[in-house]
Design brief:
391 residues, mainly alpha, 2 domains, 19 helices, globular, binds iron/sulfur cluster
């Protein structure tokens, strides 16, 4: 197989935030210190080399791109300030942008001004679009769907989800094809017979449950520099809180809608706090607010290597997540107040607009790694399992 060389690769990756890695002279310090470096003894400098010599497919197809959690230990030991950890983070941004055909991800990452304008205009668009169909504000009880019609929110949400699904699917297919080609994984290796299905099931469990939801590698391999911190201040827990919170809120929203479809409870019906779906939403909201607040504080304080390297798109994503979580919580408070506050309606409009924007922009920001990482880990676990079985 012939690999095309991209002479501008290193310069392109640098647009996504990498330091000047041309100073790297392959001393190997980063390899010696990296908790993820295995027997081949070349990571992470091998990926820097790929960028230096223009091996784009090799860089994009590297497992380590998705296993590195930017602990920064390699950067602390680099004698030439090449910042290999920062390079890995930039290469991940570059990979996400490479899988996006619309080039929106590239704009969000490489043009802070254009990215911020897009984010503001999109929120304004959703707010105006929703408000254009608004109804009256009841003063006897908080009738949120009387103010912004439920059908409008639902239909807009469906359109947004379809767009996100198509954008995400296109990126996943491009990524999966690249890795499968590199690792020589064919379709029959994934679903061809019982043995292949069993291997795929194990790989899926490892990628989704153990690595993504359980954060095994983050907890086990990438936290050595922060061992002195209590568990609730460690990077893995803050990262996991944000992810669990977001997924929990998504699940609560879908369940709430599902209950309405099967006729158990109409959406928006007042329920006690302990009602299972409400409880799930409340707990998930608390996790999301805690995770994003700590991420913001860590970035403001530059508490670790990853937090010291903030791009405009990182702030946009954090702001959207935090605002979505806090405004959702304010709505919940408003719903339980004895007198319905007028601000509840405006917070609701704000919350729906920002949440729609967050979901729509998810495939084009750092958030996308929540999907790309498990997909990559699935294929690499499958490849490792297959070679261990001697196929
Ligand atoms: S420690 Fe720095 S100079 Fe040495 S191989 Fe790693 S990136 Fe290159
Ligand atoms: S940031 Fe940490 S995990 Fe990533 S390459 Fe450097 S030492 Fe390894």
């Amino acid at each position: 197989m012939t690999a095309l060389v991209d002479a501008g690769l290193l310069a392109d990756v640098q647009k996504f935030g990498a330091a000047d890695v041309s100073a790297c002279f392959s001393c190997g310090n980063c390899t010696a210190i990296c908790p993820l470096s295995d027997n081949d003894g070349t990571f992470p400098r091998r990926l820097i080399r790929y960028a230096q010599v223009g091996m784009k497919d090799a860089l994009l197809g590297s497992k380590e791109l998705w296993t590195c959690y930017h602990c920064g230990e390699c950067s602390d030991t680099c004698p030439t300030q090449a910042d290999p950890g920062g390079f890995m983070a930039a290469a991940r941004r570059y990979a996400i942008a490479s899988y996006d055909r619309t080039r929106l991800a590239r704009t969000m990452y490489t043009s802070p001004l254009a990215g911020s304008v897009i984010a503001i205009l999109l929120a304004a668009f959703f707010a105006v679009f929703m408000y254009a169909s608004h109804g009256p504000q009841s003063t006897t009880s908080l009738q949120l769907f009387g103010f912004i019609p439920e059908a409008l929110i639902h239909n807009t949400g469906v359109v947004v989800m379809i767009l996100v699904f198509l954008a995400g699917l296109a990126g996943i297919v491009t990524m999966a094809r690249g890795i499968a080609r590199r690792e020589e994984i064919a379709l029959h290796d994934v679903i061809g017979g019982r043995a292949a299905l069993a291997r795929s099931g194990r790989a899926l469990w490892s990628a989704l449950a153990v690595e993504s939801l359980g954060q095994r590698r983050f907890r086990a391999d990438c936290e050595t520099v922060q061992d002195a911190r209590p568990w609730y201040r460690r990077r893995w827990f803050i990262h996991a809180s944000t992810m669990w919170g977001f997924l929990g809120l998504l699940a609560a929203t879908i369940l709430d809608y599902g209950l309405a479809v099967i006729g158990v409870k109409a959406t928006g019906t007042p329920v006690p706090l302990w009602y299972p779906v409400r409880l799930l939403g409340t707990l998930a909201g608390l996790f999301l607010i805690y995770g994003t607040t700590m991420l913001i504080i860590d970035r403001l304080q530059k508490a670790n290597r990853a937090a010291s390297d903030s791009k405009a798109s990182d702030w946009t994503l954090l702001a959207l997540l935090w605002v979505t979580g806090v405004s959702g919580f304010l709505i919940e408070i408003a719903l339980y107040l004895p007198q319905p506050p007028a601000w509840g309606y405006w917070v609701f409009l704000f919350h729906v607009s920002v949440a729609m924007e967050l979901v729509l922009l998810a495939p084009f920001m750092k958030f996308a790694h929540a999907v790309y990482r498990p997909v990559a880990l699935f294929f690499y676990t499958l490849a490792g399992d297959r070679s261990a079985a001697g196929h």
